[in-house]
Design a protein that fits this description.
With 142 residues, the protein is mainly beta. 11% of the residues lie in helices and 32% in strands. 22% of the residues are buried.
Amino acid sequence: MVQLKSLALLALSTLASATYYPPFLTPKAGDIWQGSNGHSYKISWNQTLPHGVSSSQAASSATLVLGFLVGGSPLLNSGGGLFAAGCKNTVTTIKPFSGDNFVEVTASVGATGNFIVAWYQDPSGHSDEFKIVKGSVTAGAC
């Protein structure tokens, strides 16, 4: 009984000190982004802290990355950024609980298929799966 109580206290203290990353609102399941065409798309998240999570536990910064699901588990772009470096509105590190609850990015990836957006530091909290399809390449597109 004492061992079980110790395990419960350890789990509670770990939960109390864990960093909280907000859940994504967009992109949503069924969304389709045109790749390589310079269109802007919004990635948004919920800034409301759930009951029991203090502001000191909220992530002070986080990196958005593009990834996909393999057998239901997220596999992320380990390069760190969301889209190709040098493209307009390239997202790297943001402050998810300061200011706006969204960023706009330019779809400029060469790959097509089903993707997710996730916090690099907490990939379990990823967006719904959405699709990126080949778009028409325009002058000046990344």
